[in-house]
Amino acid sequence: MMVRKFLILFFPIFFWNNILFCQFGANNFFENAHHICYKQPHSSNNNFSSSIHSLSNYNFDSLVNCINLDNSSWYKFATNSNGGPVDVLINQITCSGDSNIIFQNSIEVVFIYADLNLHTEFFEIIDYCYTLNTSLYLTLSNLLPDKDYYILIDGFNSLDSVPISTTCSYQIEISGIGAKPKIDAGEDIFVLPGTEIQLQGSGNGSPSWYPSFFLDSATSYSPYFIANTTTDLLLTTTDYNGCEYQDIVRVYVEPPLVFYNTITPNNDGKNDFWTIKNIENYPFCKVEIYNKWGQQVYQNVGYGNSQKWDGTNNGKPLSSGTYFYVLDNGSDINSEIFKGTINLLR
Questions:
Q1: What phi, psi does 123 have (nearest 5°)?
Q2: Which domain holds residue 54?
Q3: Within this chain, do residues 11 and 141 fall inside the same structural domain, yes or no?
Q4: Which of 149, 175, 201 is the last residue of a domain?
Q5: Which are the contacts of 104, defined by CB distance < 8 A and separation ≥ 6?
Q6: How many domains does one find in the chain?
Q7: Cβ–Cβ under 8 Å, residues 110 and 129
């Protein structure tokens, strides 16, 4: 692995904001590196880049001598509070330049760690330099927690071994446990109708909930919510880099169950399946059905539309008669077992 380091004394540049809007590309400078959000592929190019790489006069040419820094663009990603391995995918590479197809479609890539503070800056190449014309997928191991890492990409063609700068487009994607953001809308909740509960979201950045009806605050990680019907609540966090991440918590409202006692499975679209009203609010219910001799003819955990009993046992139609059900609603807050009969008519 290549490791090169250098330190630079830093002197503030007070005209920074004016320089940011010059004719160079928006991410042409190290200080303007475009942030790549976790698992959100970013399409980019180096069309307006140049050989100037820093607003603060960092001498990257002395650090990066394994590639040509003539037409480069900067990108960055952040590690989470644990750090660790981060996966990088760069693909969909298309370049302009030399007409000789053998030397087209190349970019040069180098990965840099930067530790910035008020007086001294530290830079380090953390992996090999790469020249590629199709795609690059690699894992950067043992990255430090809560740090920014930089990707420097330069367009490159070579004709008869003479380097030629070129402009390229490409796509970058960041993944891996070291960059996975912290966001959790909390565990699914089971309540009775009209209950007020407190959500238990967590994450990094500014939170917002949707829908916001019946919430006392849509911008708190732990708002209070009045549950009247089963509802999916979407938590969105926006971190300091502007990246948005989402997670969902489902609040199950457990209304009373209503059992229908007749099934007529003749494919006329009416009563072809045994129906239990409101059962969708009890996803962990356990349903068992027996014939009059006590033999089990149906058993399932959950009773969704694709799980409903159609008067068969292992796909074979059962005869008309009376059948007996036992249902455990699987509730954590109001556990109850129901028993009754079902009339099967053919």
A1: -125, 145
A2: 5-175
A3: yes
A4: 175
A5: 95, 97, 98, 133, 157
A6: 3
A7: yes
Nearest to residue 145, comparing CAs of 74, 202, 204, 206? 204
User: Does 37 lie in the same domain as 126?
Assistant: yes
Query: Residue 225 is inside which H or E element, if any?
Result: strand 224-227
Q: Judge if 27 and 138 occupy the same domain.
A: yes
Which run of H or of E encompasses 301? strand 296-301
Type of residue found at 178 = G
What are the average pLDDT values for consecutive 10-residue runs of the chain, which has 346 residues? Answer: 36 32 55 93 84 69 69 90 96 71 70 80 84 89 94 73 70 97 94 93 96 95 94 96 96 93 93 95 96 97 95 95 97 91 96
Burial of 258 by CB count in 10 Å (0-12 exposed, 13-18 middle, 19+ buried)? exposed
Q: What is the DSSP string of 166-178?
A: --EEEEEEEESTT
DSSP letters of 83-109? -EEEEEEEEEEEE-S-S-GGG-S-EEE
Choose among 164, 170, 161, 167: nearest CA to 136.
170
How many residues appear in the chain? Answer: 346
Whole-structure pTM over 0.85, yes or no?
A: no
* Cα-Cα-Cα-Cα dihedral sign, residues 27, 180, 211, 196: negative
Contact 273, 309 (CB under 8 A): yes
Same domain, 167 and 187: no
Q: What is the CATH number of the domain that holds 54?
A: 2.60.120.380
Same domain (yes/no): 211, 128: no
